[in-house]
Amino acid sequence: MFDATYASEAPEFLKKHPEVTTIDLLIADMNGVIRGKRVDPSVLKKAYEKGICLPESVFTLDIRGGTVEETGIGLATGDCDKYCYPIPETLSIVPWQKRPTAQLLMTMHEADLTPVSFNPRQVLNAIVERFKELRLKPVVAVELEFYLLDKSFSSDNTPQPPVSPVSGKRENNTQVYSIDNLDDYSDFLEEVIHSAQLQGIPADTISAEYAPGQFEVNLHHIDDPLAACDHGILLKRVIKSIATKHGFEATFMAKPYADQAGNGMHIHISVLDEQGKNAFANQDGSYTSNMLRAVAGLLKLMPASMALFCPNVNSFRRFSPDFYTPNAPSWGKDNRTTALRVPAGDREATRIEHRVSGADANPYLVMGALLAGIHYGITEQLEPPAVLKGNAYEQIEPCLADNLRDALRELDESKVMGEYLGQHFVDTYSICKNHELVEFEKSISDLEYKWYLRTV
Length: 456
Description:
The chain has helices at about 10-15, 45-50, 120-135, 180-185, 185-200, 225-245, 290-310, 365-380, 405-415, 415-420, 425-440, 445-450, and strands at about 20-30, 35-40, 50-55, 80-85, 90-95, 100-110, 135-150, 205-210, 215-220, 250, 265-270, 330-335, 340, 350-355. It has about 450 residues and is of the alpha+beta class. The chain has 2 domains: about 5-115, Ubiquitin-like (UB roll), CATH 3.10.20; about 130-445, Glutamine synthetase/guanido kinase, catalytic domain (Creatine Kinase, Chain A, domain 2). The strands form 2 sheets. Strands 7, 8, 9, 10, 11, 12, 13 and 14 form an 8-stranded mixed β-sheet that branches. Strands 1, 2, 3, 4, 5 and 6 form a 6-stranded mixed β-sheet that branches.
């Protein structure tokens, strides 16, 4: 809603950028997909002062963009409008557009200016507010993995890696952390970082990942989880748009290749006390009770959070011990086989790295689930299991949901998650995802024809 603190944002921006001809007003839906309107610059002042209207049903769209009427939010309500207001400090130039264009991230409110309760950003905000009672402030960082793809499918109608702009050869091998791979795609990667920084997105590191054409972009840690997720949403737009400009496609699909690593979204979290010191580590570097309780809460709520970490049918294809994807609640020190990893480093850098969620997940919802787990662990004074050393896959049986239906059932049955996320949100999310699951299961795959059509 209108905040007088940022009243000058629009006129100052337009004065600085008189060349702008259109402005994209953006909002992320339940799936983290960006929706919105493209408007004339003359509309910008109104957007700040009075908001712009979008239907409430934007948060009940399935992954294909259709309204899930079973939620009761759509035709049943006349598909009524709500009011979207700017998120401060997200107004920026869109450097990849041919026409001078700007963009602004929005969030949705009721007519009385209260936030829409099942808006994923508001779900996260409500959980962040709880940390003020504990006099703690979360500090977070988001890491996103993605694949560059050739625009053309292979002969068997599946995605394929791109042809290197340098060697002219198609990528076909794994070179994790390869500098040569970064060199091959340096024009694309440098433009991603440059465009992100022009938009105030703190992207600072890119590395080659565990498969041909796969990369990871790291966002710098900040003490504002909402802004961190705003950056994650906008970074996806940057990467996809710059990839198209360079003749590629970029995907954050969890598992685009059956025989290669999936795309993950790793999130790093610590908390600061009132003095601004890391509340996860003592002076001697040992873990505080807050740290241990946070780990315990994250592990406790992990099964009920899987539907948020892995929101699509494809999400669960990513889980395999061969690709460092944890499939059981576990934690370890500098151990990439565990679900929660405490990276090595000094006292100030002590943090928890969550390694379960896919890059296809909505960052607001993943962050909300993680902060709920930390808050729950601290307030309930939970104790974690013993820290795991060595290969966690050989020590603990897979027990997290391995399919969307079971994950949704765990979420539905969790009173704790309903209390943290809001029952209205949980019910709406579950209805939308079950709808997608039913639609998916109506399809008949090519493999079914190959196996059964002439055999049975």
